[in-house]
Amino acid sequence: MMSTPILGAEFSALVGTSATLTHTVTAEDSAKNWGNDLDVLSTPVLLWLSEITAMKVIESVVFASAMTVGLAHDSAHLAPTLTGDTVTITATLTGIDGKKLTFSVEGRDSHGAVLRGVHRRAVVNREEFIEKLAARSA
To answer: What's the pTM value of the predicted model, to 2 decimals?
Structure first.
């Protein structure tokens, strides 16, 4: 049985391409929800926003039979962003190694840089991933 390809040649054409996401920090995004007593953008939410932005870069070329999953973050949360401020995240696809994608990620709020680093994702077969998930939950 031949498996359906999950990584099209279109990915290579996207190296160097960026996407941007703008997000206003709400109480739901606050570090107060993560065991901190400060009302600032939490690091987990900031990393999640960088993942969402990276997925936007490649969304037009991910086959329906595929999906991407996060592999790693090597990012620094550089400064606090107050609740109510807006953060703008930019992700740029910088490289492809087989099914692994590397993105440069940066974030800024009204005061300056708040995030800088690298995010890695892998392109996987959606059906196989769901089967593995089902096996883990049995």
So the answer is: 0.90
